[in-house]
Amino acid sequence: MQIKLISTSDVHGYLAPTDYSRRTDVAPFGLSRAATLIRQLTATDDDTVWPIVIDNGDFVQGSPLTYFIARQHLEAAPLYSRLANCNHVQAGIFGNHEFNYGLDFLDLCESARHYPMLAANIEDDQHRTLFSKPYTILERAGVKVAILGLTTQFVGRWELPAHLKGLHFKDIVTTAKAYVPKLRQLADVVVVAYHGGLECDPQTNHPTERLNGENRGSALLNEVPGIDALITGHQHRRLAVNINGVPVTQPGMKGQNVGLITLDLDAQHHITTSQAETLSVKHAAPDAQAMALIKPINDQMEDWLDTPLGTINGDMLVHEPLAARLHNHPYLNFINQVEMAATGTDIAATALFNDDVPGLKPNVTLREVMNSYVYPNKLAIETITGADLKAALERCASYFLLQDSHVIVNPEFLKPKLRHYVYDIYSGIDYTFDLTRPMGQRVVQLDYHGQAVTPEQTLTVTLNHYRAGGGGNYPMFSTTKIQRQLPTDMTVLIADYFAKHPVVTATQPTNFKVKY
């Protein structure tokens, strides 16, 4: 028997082959391309070849289409599970972004599914069927394969509490230690599908990020014996390796690749050989059946994206992402203006989430807004101390390194996962970084209303809800410090701002300086 474990992960709602930058865009990724590859891998008449398809989470959020469905067309939400059925998915895993639009929406997304959702480390006080299955056992020709589903335990730190009512996320290693021995007794092959990544280098086992519990794939393989294959995600890496004799895959994001683990079994159902690989979809034509499901709502969404909002007087396009982060930028200043107008505070922070953020063209449409502000963030107003603010700015200052007198991005923010979204730019304060100084001592100026900020001073700041909960390793921020939250997504707040200010002037801010 040969078992083929086929996986998608972190599709993030990129269903059609487009990045939505323009109506005619054709991109070399997307679930519809992956569907063609999956169809080829699952189409076999050989009874000794057993394909098993798993979606590893972060499926229903991340693209303009996902926002359009969640906020404008709830009736289209079952599209996600219909597409999964189309791809012969036999097990689904919850990603952290599955919860961004709340549990009712998630239940609607999965309402047409023919497969179980696996949630071994999610405890549900309300005993909903959506979270009731920790694992599934599949059988063919006497061979049994157990699939255990795990979700990064950090969801509770990031997500709005209202979206997680009754849910508790347990440690994934402790959970696996409880289940894997049991599954070894029940099945011939034990597969762990984990919406999380590797926190250590696959070859050296040295940590590649802070060991805070967000990614614990390496710990699973080092501490939990009996795992035959590990499917990972969350970090958006393209990864196919063997660790401690266990094949491991991670297929990137946006349906760029399909993960494939091949296990060969002997007559006694023992694994004799294994192989991990990722298969690019860029040369695969979009699957006709998938596109037939996607096209009606996608066409409506494309019309919606072309809705005009307002105009920009000046240049608000992001030409050099590093320069924008190093010297501030009119686009970032504008986003902070929107935040402060919505909340009534006079300090706000935002991030240039990734290097693909285009900024805003002179004639602004929803398309530009959705492609620049890519997360469904809501705003939180938090009361902090001057010491908290300085510590947050020191975290921001660690984003930069000096190399031969040139400023570069600290590799900590680039590998194993791109994390430009962790670096924030502030408005409402005047501050200066000195990159020649040691980490933790780089904030050499911090003024508010023309006066130096003192450690004990109380300040009110607007943050997105991810940062307000400490996301991105900002322990100085906490949900306990949140005074109030806005229920409206940032993209809507941006559109509302244009409704009140049809012409916005691009202004280069001068409140932030960097010495090097």
TrEMBL record:
Q: Name one Pfam family in it.
A: Metallophos
Q: Which SUPFAM superfamilies match?
A: 5'-nucleotidase (syn. UDP-sugar hydrolase), C-terminal domain, Metallo-dependent phosphatases
| UniProt family annotation | Belongs to the 5'-nucleotidase family.
Q: Which organism is it from?
A: Lactiplantibacillus dongliensis
Domain of life, per UniProt, equals: Bacteria
Q: Which residues form the 5'-Nucleotidase C-terminal domain?
A: 324-478
The UniProt keyword set, sorted, is: Hydrolase, Nucleotide-binding, Signal
The record, for InterPro entries, names: 5'-Nucleotdase_C, 5'-Nucleotdase_C_sf, 5_nucleotidase/apyrase, Calcineurin-like_PHP, Metallo-depent_PP-like
| Name this protein carries in UniProt | Bifunctional metallophosphatase/5'-nucleotidase
Annotated ranges, domain Calcineurin-like phosphoesterase = 5-237
The answer on whether this UniProt entry bears the keyword Nucleotide-binding reads yes
